[in-house]
Each structure stands twice: as C-alpha cells, then as structure tokens.
Amino acid sequence: MVGLRGQQPQLQVGRGDFLIARAARAWLLAVGLALLAAPTDAARFQDGRIAMGTLFEVTIEAPSERLAREAAEACYAEAERLEALLSRWRPDSQVSKLNASAGGAALPVHPDVLSLLADAKALGRQTRGSFDVTVGPLIALWTAAGERDRLPTQAEIDATREKVGVEAIEVEGGRARLARPGMSIDLGGVAKGWALDRMETLLRARGIERALLSFGQSSLIGIGAPEGEPGWRVLVRGPGGDFAGVAVLRDTRLSISGSFGRSSEIAGRRFGHVLDPRTGWPVDHEAIAVVEAGTAAQAEAFSKALLVLPAPDAIAAMEAQQGVEGLWMGAEASQETAGFRAAVGFEAAPSE
C-alpha cells in the first residue's frame, strides 16, 4: 500500500528533447524506437513544478503556445486545489480533519473527497485488501520504529492493525466518518493518480488532444500522441536501476512503483517504504511494478498491490479486472499479465 515516506521512481521520460539515458540510446536506435525531433506545426509547452509532494511535469502540444500554457496552468491549479483537500500534512485539509475526528461524528466533506474515499474502498476490494488507504496508524508505528532503531513487537503490530480497514470508512449523504478511534487515512498511494484522472478530463474539455502528465515520473497519463509519433515513449528501469525497456503511452494511464524506492534499516534489517496492510509489515524484497489501467488511480492501487501480494496472486487479481495489465520485476525474475506488452507497447531491453 502507501509507504513510510515518498518514493523515488526509477524511470525516465523521453521524447524529442527529453533526456534519454546513453545506455539505452543504442538499443532504441537498433529497434527503430529512437525519439525523433520531427517537424511539427503544433506548439509544445514543457514545464514542471512541485505539487502534491513531488515534481509534477507537464508536456502539452496545442495549436498555440498560449493555449498550451493556459492548459498547464489549469492543471497546476487543480493539483493545488486537490492537495488542499487531501493532504494529511495540512492541518486544515479535510483529510486531516477526518483523521482528527476518527471514532466521532461524521463530518460534511467536499464531493471530491467523498468520491475518492468511495473509489479507495472499491480499490481495496479489487486488490484483495493489499491496497488500503487507512494504513496511517501502521505508517506512524514503523516511522517511530525507524527513529528508535527497534522493530515493533508483533503485539504492537496486531494492536495497530485493529485500527486499519477500509470497511470502517463510512460515506453517506455528503458526510464521511472514520468509525474506529485512532484510525487515519493516507491517500498518498492513490491521490496523484486520482488527480491525473481529473486533469485528463479538464484538458480534454479544453480541446487538448496531445499531452503527457507525470507526478514524480511514477504516475503518468499520456493523452493522444506527439505529432508524428505512435505515443509518448517512456524508459522504464528495473530493480537496481537497470534499463528494463520502453513503454509507449497513447491514451494510457501508467503507474510505476518500487518497493525500495526509499528504504530504511531497522535493527539491522532493510525494509522498503511500501506496507502490507494485511500483515502490518513493510515489504522486505526489492521489486518494481508497472501497471496500466482504465484510470490512473486504479493503476496506482494495483502497482502497490503488485509489490505487496505474491506476484502470481497479484497477476491473477489484475487479470480478474477488465482493463488492468501489469509487469512485476524482481532481482532475478519477472512476471506479467497476458496483455501487458500490447497495452503499453512495451519492448523489453535485450538481455546480455
């Protein structure tokens, strides 16, 4: 599920004057996927700002630079608006107020928050409980364990897990409530994807047909394709930072998660930032998950599930959901759904 901290995604975006790793360039040329700087009549605007706790990057092609800039500003404004509602780090956000009132009366909540909470509950069911936005108490427990360099006892973990479970999020009639005292929600594992879904709707309403949006290069939407190209090309890295292949995004929502994007050592053991809400323990193996889905929020949830569940179980969970495809890469092996490569135009790097 969501992690102890943020994550450092292991991916680079490339197209035209985007940066491309030297190690990958020769192979891209060899298979005919070199990023071409083709002449174009469209104006392209590229920019990036800090938003929702990470770098939010925008590339938009439009009939004029003015229209592209205006569309980008609309995306920035939407990110700021949603962060003000959803951030658990802002004491005045609606999520912070819900957490503070856990176990008490239901609070009136903005429609966007209600919608995201309902989606989060559904995603918890789809991922067989491996994605759960109520892991806030577990995050606090393991953060404290890291600060004192002492593993929590199993009794402490079990007691904390009593405060976790999406079934205890109650949503009804414009109000929401966390039913158990001590509960807290952390939307960091889904909010960026959910924001991208809102931004896609916003851009399409403005007539934007070609854009690439990226939160931290881990949650992305490719709208349409750059003029003259099949899609927005993305270089994907596997465990340890090795070049794993290229994904081509065209009306595609993609999430990349790494179990050791950030890691910590507690009492001599290395743990990743991703927590398993079913056991209460952080993931302790290095892996990368790449997921494509019908929405960016769904892709984010399943990329966490792919790290938490045993890979065969996660693959089966994705194949049970229409329109969800994924790739799991471990240190020595990989697994993927039957339709993953076709869904994202994935070309694996040749093995040495």
> What is the N-to-C order of secondary-structure elements (H for helix, E for strand)?
EHEEHHEHHHEEHEEEEEEEEHHEEHE
Helix count from the secondary structure assignment: 10
Question: For the terminal residues, how far apart are their CA atoms?
Answer: 33 Å
Q: Order of strands in the sheet with the most strands? A: 2-3-7-8-11-14-15-16
Radius of gyration: 20 Å
What proportion of the residues form beta strands (DSSP E)? 25-35%
Question: Helical percent range?
Answer: 25-40%
- What is the 3D shape? globular
**Quaternary structure annotation:** single chain
- What's the mean pLDDT score? 87
Short structural summary:
With 352 residues, this protein is of the alpha+beta class.
Helices and strands in order:
Blueprint (H helix, E strand, L loop, with lengths): L10 E3 L8 H9 L12 E9 L2 E9 L2 H22 L7 H7 L6 E2 L2 H16 L9 H13 L5 H8 L7 E4 L2 E4 L12 H15 L4 E6 L3 E5 L8 E6 L5 E7 L2 E7 L4 E4 L2 E4 L14 E7 L2 H13 L2 H9 L5 E6 L3 E3 L3 H5 L2 E2 L4
Antiparallel strand pairs: 1-9, 2-3, 3-7, 4-6, 5-6, 7-8, 8-11, 9-10, 10-17, 11-14, 12-13, 14-15, 15-16
Helix pairs in contact: 2-7, 7-8, 8-9
